[in-house]
Amino acid sequence: MDRSAETLPRLVIFDLDGVVYRGRQPVAGAAGLATALRRSGALIRFATNNSMTTRAAYVTRLVEMGVEAGIEEIVTSTSATIDHLRANLPAARRVLAVGAPGMLEELRAAGFEATAAADATDAAYDGGPLAAEYDVVIAGLDPAFDYRRLAAASTAVRAGAVFIATNADLLYPTATGFLPGAGSIVAAIRAASGVEPLVIGKPQPGIFLAILEQAGVEPGGALAIGDNPDADMVAANRAGIDSILVLTGIADAAAAAELSGERRPGRVARDPAEVAAMLGLTLS
User: Fold this and answer.
1) How far apart are alpha carbons 167 and 85 in whole angstroms?
2) pTM of the full predicted structure?
3) Which of 120-124, 131-135, 196-200 has the lowest mean pLDDT?
4) Could you give the residue numbers annotated as active site?
5) Please, which residues have CB within 8 angstroms of residue 70's CB and are 6 or more apart in sequence?
6) Domains 8-49+203-278 and 91-199 equal at CATH topology level
7) Model confidence pLDDT, tens digit, residues 32-47
8) What top-level class would CATH report for the domain 91-199?
9) What is the pLDDT of residue 120?
10) At the fourth CATH level, which superfamily is domain 8-49+203-278?
11) Domains of the chain: which residue ranges?
C-alpha cells in the first residue's frame, strides 16, 4: 500500500527529456510513477528546458505515453521566457527567434512579433543591416541552426537587442544517444556577438520558483526528479527543493558518485521504479 500523503512531497516536478522519455521512447516506469504520485495526492508538474515544442504538444505526447497531463502542468523554457519578458521587459514586442517552430508558435500566440532568424535577412551574411530592429534575441535548440541564423542573431545582439537563452544545456538526450543541446547554439551566438546571454531555464531556479508560487507549495514540500546534474540538480538546490537524480538520461552511476556542491542530488535512483521504492509507492 502507498504511504500516507503526509509523508510524501506535496509537489513533484518531473524533468522530461531523459526522465519521462528519451526522444520518442518512453522511460520504463515513468508513467507508473506519475500515476502512483497522483494517486497519493501529490501535485505533479513537468518542467523542461526543451524549447522546441509547444505546451499543448507536450500534453499530447505525454498522454500518448500513458502520462496524464494538463497544459497548466507544463512549464517549458519558452513559456518561462515569455513570463520573464512580460514581467521584466513589458515593452518588448519584436523578437528574433533562433529555435524550432514550436518556439515561434508559442511566442506568436503570446502576442510577440516573432521572426525566425533564418528569415531576418540575407544581408546578415556579409554584415549588412537587418531588415528590422529587434528588442530581444531568444535562442533555444534549433535543429536547423546554420550560418544565416548565427549571423542574423549575432548582428541583432550587437545592434542592442537583449540576448536571452531559453537554456544552456550542452547535451540533448535521445533514444539512441546524445545530440548537441541549446547550449552549443547559445555559445556560438555569444562568441559571435561578444555578449553574455540571460539564461532563463535550469540551472537558474526561476522555473522551479515559479512552479512553487503557482502551486502554493513551500520549497520544503517539493521534490524535483531530473537526469542532468548541471541543470536539474543545480536548479533544485538553488530553489531549496529536495531532488532525486535518475540514471536514465545524462548521468551514469560513476558520474553520479563524483557529484558535489550544487550538482549533488539529494538521492540517486537507477530508474523510476527505484524512485517509487524510495517514496514508498507501489507501481501498478
Assistant:
1) 15
2) 0.84
3) 120-124
4) 15, 17
5) 59
6) yes
7) 999 999 999 999 999 9
8) alpha beta
9) 86
10) HAD superfamily/HAD-like (3.40.50.1000)
11) 8-49+203-278, 91-199
